[in-house]
Amino acid sequence: MQTGKPACDTRMNNRYPAISPAILVLMSAREAEYADIPVLQPADPFLDMAGEELRSRIFLTQNEKGESLCLRPEFTIPVCQKYIASGSGAHKRYGYIGEVFRQRRNGQTEFFQTGIEDLGDPDHSAADARAVGDALAVLRVALPDEPMRVVIGDQAIFEAVLGALGLPNGWKKRLARSFGSRPSLEAALHELQKPHSGGRFEPPVSGLIAAEDEAGLTAHIAAQMAEVGMHPQSGRSAKEIANRLIEKTKLAETRLPTGAMKTLRSFLSIKVPLADAASALRDFASENDIDIVDALKQFSARAGAISMQKSDGAELHYDATFGRPLDYYTGHVFEVFADGVRQPLAGGGRYDRLLTMLGASETTPGVGFSVWLDRVETITGAWT
Fold first, then answer.
1. Which residues of the chain have pLDDT under 70?
2. Are 148 and 132 in contact (CB under 8 A)?
3. What would the pLDDT profile of 94-126 be if each residue is shown by its tens digit?
4. Are 96 and 34 in contact (CB under 8 A)?
5. What is the spatial distance between Cα 373 and Cα 383, in angstroms, rounded to a whole number?
6. Which residues pair with 100 in a beta bridge?
7. Which of 353, 342, 344 is CA-nearest to residue 373?
8. Separation between Cα atoms, residue 278 and residue 27, nearest integer Å
9. DSSP-assigned beta bridge partners for residue 113
10. What's the rounded Cα separation, in Å, for the pair 98 and 286?
11. Is the pTM of this model over 0.70?
């Protein structure tokens, strides 16, 4: 694998952390080619792929053609686009370091990130383990003796549990989107438990929805649209509206049985050292008579690979409720914490759907991480 030169970004100056050259040397040693990503980026890929958590916090502008642009809010998407444009399709690793621009709750709008994106490796377990190891190694450049803790979650395990409970697809999608946000997940679970309040529509719409008569409902909506002079091409079609009304009503009427909710709560309570996680999940599946064999097989292989690598003394934990609030994650997710710092120093995960969504001609595995260098600075007290 060609690693490319480990030279700093040509824009790198004294505003960059003094540890940047050491990080770039580490990336080169770990066969990660340096990726020079422009600060100004097309906005649509971020708006389409990264989800509401990022959408509301990026900085938008336009070019002379009226196309939406944004200041670089993260590196994963443009690095994946760089890989797609290369056309190689081979396993490749990219490292980066630079400023990102997005609104934080504390008012900060620009800060430095560094990380590695690992693309095209068919050995998911090895690549996932390598991402955790690389993140710890980057942090150790600045924090060689700091006690660290890695929290690991798995979106695929969570979705397998939801699938085993027999929820409709709409509810599975909503709960999956809530994974990583405890308030959103709790709100969704509360709605699944509360009594159904009854229909919201008057006849004949209520009867057509109850009968799931899509054709009849479409015809009724089309007639109503024509009556008020709404052109069929002015928005969603009558068929799209009818389909959505039926789907939303079915979701609103769905209630999770007490036993299934107890099972889901039991799963979400699992918090154990990573070395014990696979056995805890197997016990959970056996006790609740649910099938998560395929997801658990991949989880066990990954957990073993992570546990076998050098973790630089970091504690490794699995938390069944842990996720990361970006829509493109598909499986393994993790964050790295240090004592006395509430926010994570690094975070990442697997995003196997992302490259296809960005235009790759075939499904391409991907995993990566970012380190927030400003948070590292809160521990060191200065760029060291």
1. 1-14, 50-53, 194-201, 209-211, 231-235, 245-255, 381-384
2. no
3. 999 999 999 877 778 999 999 999 999 999 999
4. yes
5. 9
6. 111
7. 344
8. 31
9. 98, 372
10. 47
11. yes
* Token couple for 163: 């699938």
Q: Could you please report the per-residue DSSP string of 59-101? A: -EEE-TT--EEEE---SHHHHHHHHHHH---S-EEEEEEEEEE
Q: What is the four-CA torsion angle of 243, 248, 253, 255, rounded to 10 degrees?
A: 120
At residue 73, what is the residue type?
P
The total number of residues shown for the chain amounts to 384
At 2 the pLDDT is 42
What does pLDDT average to over the chain? 85
Task: Kindly give the residue spans of alpha helices, DSSP state H, lying in the chain.
Answer: 20-29, 44-49, 52-55, 76-86, 124-142, 155-164, 169-178, 182-193, 205-210, 214-227, 238-253, 258-268, 274-288, 293-308, 354-357, 373-380
* Contact status, residue 179 vs residue 329, Cβ threshold 8 Å: no
What's the first-to-final CA gap in the chain, in angstroms?
Answer: 31
